[in-house]
Amino acid sequence: MGHKPPYQKLEALSHDAVSWKDGFWGNLHQLCRDTVLPSMRKALDEPDNGAVFSNFHIAAGLREGERKGTMWSDGDCYKWMEAMCHMYGATRDEAIIDELDELIDVIAQAQEDDGYISTAMQLSDDKEYWTNHRDHELYNMGHLLTAASVHHRITGKDNFLQIAIKQADYLYDLFMPRPPELAHFGFNPSNTMGAIDLYRVTGDARYLELAACFVDMRGSQPGGGDQNQAMVPLREETRAVGHAVTAGYLYCGATDVVAETGDEELLAGLLRIWDNAIHSKMYITGGTSAQHHGASERPEFGGSATDVHEAFGYEYSLPNATAYNETCANIANAMWNWRLLNLSGDAKYTDIVELVLYNSMLSSMSLDGITFCYTNPLRWYGADHPLLSQDAYERWYISRCYCCPTNTARTIALLHNWFYSASDEGLWIHLYGSNSVNTALPDGSSIALTQQTDYPWDDTIRISIDEAPANEASLMLRIPGWADAASLRVNGETSDLPLNPGTYANLRRTWQADDVVELRLPMRPRLVKAQPKAEEIRNHVAVMRGPLVYCLEGVDLPDDVSILEVHAPRDMQLEARRENDLLGGVTVLKGRTRRVLEGDQSEALYFDAGNEHEEDLDVTLIPYYAWNNRGITEMTVWLPRST
């Protein structure tokens, strides 16, 4: 364990406390190590990709050429480097250190003497530093600070850290006077998280001051807009608005500041935003950006305030086919809820983390770990789908905007850090999967245990105590909000401990080595409906089993049947069946639906009702994350109710 924020309830474990076993996330971690990260490294050398390492070589004077990629290319390269650091922590593969050292040496040579580094700006003849917040200077710099801090914490080396310190000192001198013209800078504010990360590994209080300054400046001057949450100071905000990635990053950084300072006014603003985002603007998959293009919702200012894109929509406006749900926004939603969980110990935040991980984060990556998508809609019309910004019919290897693949890779690479926390009570188990953990507790005693489970396919988690703490201690077991019939056995005997959905069950005792805890979270398929104000999905149902959202893909229907014809009967029964040879091995849901054929098959926009014909139709539903792996086809999460 390292630095514990003084106002945070839960304490992170050391980076090497958890080891993966075979299982859902263990297999994905291995895929990330063996395929995702090596393939991604090659993509980051493709000149037509949106993120490229070549800019660092050119800025360092080591190579001739023109700037390539986007203005935020550097930041996406740093995310890949961060993922490699986490992978080194898990594998101790020295080849990773060698590869990172080569890149760090180039980055050091590209950095200017005063600490500035953002190669897209350095290689642009027609741009001046700090004149346009869309140039993403702070986005790039923030990801450098985080990657360098992770690198130092895991490797103990300081070559990357020295670059980060030099850059942070430059930013401190630039921003701490709080120049009004820079009040709304940081279009995509990874910089606040990065400053906190650097503070936590160096102990230099100036970087905490800098992070708090970044939060305070946002919205502090007239002229800011909702696109990057700069219209209203964060402490006064009441709703989630604007670009859903810049929002998520801002909320993450601000929550980090709360954890270090205990700023109650800032926390109150964040919780108001959370309530608005989660209860009226989040998709069933955990996605958060409904709008490709639109306007922000500001009734307090007389209606729509500013144009926005890649953004939160209006309350309860959750379109399916045109849902944006950028992968980075979905991951930022999980990152924010992870921080709120550690601040409070409240399981409602863990439920959101898990929802994103299994659905709107994982849906972005192909099953082989090589190709990706940017948007994550909930309905797709196959080859007839109207493509909006960043949509694509099939997954791609490289893209004009490459931020999402590197974000997905680093999340998988670091995910073992999210499974457990510690507190004075004992060990908190947030997520379930086959792994081993060996850690010290805050009282100085040690605990080691092993999880064995086929979760999320199977409903049973077996936890065996390998090393018992010297004193009485708790296992804080998360009971997911969907688990309404959980049961618990300790050494074969049924426990009468209350297992309320959406809480942590406090299993406290004096433990012995070889004690066994068996937690069962029954995974009955369930039909879920939405708040009636969500007009796009009124009188529709979605299907979930455990943490997984399911969908219907056109490839699983007869050739003459469209997803638009499939309706869910009110008494729809679903049977879970494991298919080891399908989509890498998944549990599918099989059931009988109703096929509704319109009497008038014309292309008319409107026609008389009452001529519909219904017939039974057997369907197979697959996990949403696994769609778009079998060619161009239709897909839907929501099914209309049959009459």
Q: Would you write up a description of this structure?
A:
By secondary structure, the protein is α+β, with helices and mostly antiparallel strands. It has 4 domains: 44-217, no CATH class; 222-377, no CATH class; 420-520; 527-640, no CATH class. 32% of the residues lie in helices and 20% in strands. The strands form 4 sheets. Strands 4, 15, 16, 17, 18, 19, 20, 21, 22 and 23 form a 10-stranded antiparallel β-sheet that branches. It has a 7-stranded antiparallel β-sheet with strand order 1-7-8-9-14-11-12. A 4-stranded mixed β-sheet has the order 5-6-10-13. The model has no long low-confidence stretch (mean pLDDT 96).
Lay out the secondary structure.
Blueprint (H helix, E strand, L loop, with lengths): L17 E3 L3 H20 L10 H6 L13 H19 L2 H17 L8 H4 L14 H19 L3 H17 L14 H13 L2 H13 L26 H18 L2 H17 L10 E8 L4 E9 L15 H18 L2 H15 L17 E3 L21 H12 L5 E3 L3 E4 L5 E6 L5 E8 L6 E8 L5 E7 L7 E4 L2 E2 L8 E7 L6 E5 L5 E3 L11 E6 L2 E6 L12 E2 L6 E6 L6 E12 L15 E11 L10 E3 L2 E2 L3
Parallel strand pairs: 6-10
Antiparallel strand pairs: 1-7, 2-3, 4-22, 5-6, 7-8, 8-9, 9-14, 10-13, 11-12, 11-14, 15-16, 16-17, 16-23, 17-21, 17-22, 18-20, 19-20, 20-21
